[in-house]
Amino acid sequence: MRILLFALRGDYVADEIKVEEISADIPKQGSAPTPSASAQEPEKPGPTHSEAIVEKIAEQVAPPAQTDDEALLAFVEQTKPRVFVIGTGGSGTNTLDRLFELNVKEVTLLAMNTDARHLLKVRAHRKLLLGKTTTKGHGAGSNPQMGEAAAKESTEEIKSTLAGASMVFVTCGLGGGTGTGSAAIIAEQAKAAGALVISIVTLPFSSEGRVRLENALSGLDRLRRHSDTVIVIKNDKLLTLAPNLPLNTAFKVCDEVLAGSVKGIAELVTKAGLVNVDFADLKTILTQGGFAVIGLGEANVDAKVEDRATIAVETALNSPLLDADLTTANRALINVVGGEDMTLKEAELIVAETAKRIHPNAHIIWGARVEPTSQKTSLRTMIVLTGVKFEKQEMEAGLETLDLDLIG
């Protein structure tokens, strides 16, 4: 009787394998062994006849050898940076919710809070309720010490969550309880995991009072000890972007700026560009970068093509968010994103204009990426300047003022 076996080989059609042809070369059980000099030694049992047939079939249907591209792709997947964005406290988790809506790719969004009800409303890939015993899920009551105690209670959970992280963003609004108290603990665990730690935080509006500002500055001092780079955004400066907004709407503007900043930096690593910035480049600029500022600029579709690069870079460099002495910046990270008609000359103009405003010996790394989904004539840029010194100024809080030399 003729026996046929069929085996599926990858994407190929089934191969017909004739068992009798395979078995012809395999001695059957019970056949006489070939005489040899060591015939008197006891023979070790070999595979049965059916087992030998199966082995032969397996050899014939083995998958084809991996191509160079397949091997390279597998290596890239194994070694690509693991990026986490942690939003802690009310403001931080609101930023995370906005990032989720923006659908940032290849980034894990992790929401942390002491307020269980607020945490339920937030959209994120993962969530962690801090200090279940300390706060019972009822929040930190605007008390940074309570927020810190809650984070310390959850240290082991934070540590296990961040194991293997390559880059960690910590974002929050300073001045309250959970974000102010927990951010430094989270950053410390991220550093212990070997990650590049970038903290992006806001300082409170003057209208929120002196106590909140004092809490914010104290939290900022602790946070910078465990962060490679701290990007500071002063909420009062956001008011100059939209001065007539109600306060609750102004807070949403803060969330939008924080989300845009995180997205812009993260996508330098997670999205390939025409002029590419890799993770090593990012580490060069942001490792031990100290305090930093960020400027976001865009030339909309109404701008003339010949003017849009100038508009984008001037908008970014003159942004109220770049509230520092730019000439002290010793490193710059620049990203330019445009439609398919963006030119290399436009990207170079943005880099050149930035170089004129910062320290002459500053280390500049820049990238450019085409987004086919962008409107054809739009152009936007993100400029991160590290090592900056803040100009001496005062921030009104009630009837008195507080010197912000802490962040200078």
Question: Would you write up a description of this structure?
Answer:
- The chain has helices at 19-23, 49-60, 68-79, 89-102, 116-121, 132-135, 144-153, 155-161, 178-192, 210-224, 235-239, 247-270, 279-286, 308-317, 344-357, and strands spanning 4-7, 15-18, 83-88, 108-113, 126-129, 167-173, 196-203, 229-234, 290-299, 331-338, 363-370, 379-386, 394-397, 400-403.
- Helix 4 packs across helix 12.
- It has 15 helices and 14 strands.
- The protein is an alpha/beta fold.
- The model is unreliable at 1-20 and 392-408 (pLDDT under 50).
- The chain has a 10-stranded mixed beta sheet, with helices on both faces. It has a two-stranded antiparallel ribbon with strand order 1-2.
- The longest helix has 24 residues, at 247-270.
- Strand 3, helix 4 (89-102) and strand 4 form a beta-alpha-beta unit.
- It is globular and about 90 Å long.
- The chain folds into 2 domains: 79-271, Tubulin/FtsZ, GTPase domain (Rossmann fold), CATH 3.40.50.1440; 291-408, Tubulin/FtsZ, C-terminal domain (60s Ribosomal Protein L30, Chain: A, 2-Layer Sandwich).
- The termini are far apart.
Could you provide a short overview of the structure?
The chain has 408 residues and is of the alpha/beta class. It has helices spanning 19-23, 49-60, 68-79, 89-102, 116-121, 132-135, 144-153, 155-161, 178-192, 210-224, 235-239, 247-270, 279-286, 308-317, 344-357, and strands at residues 4-7, 15-18, 83-88, 108-113, 126-129, 167-173, 196-203, 229-234, 290-299, 331-338, 363-370, 379-386, 394-397, 400-403. The chain has 15 helices and 14 strands.
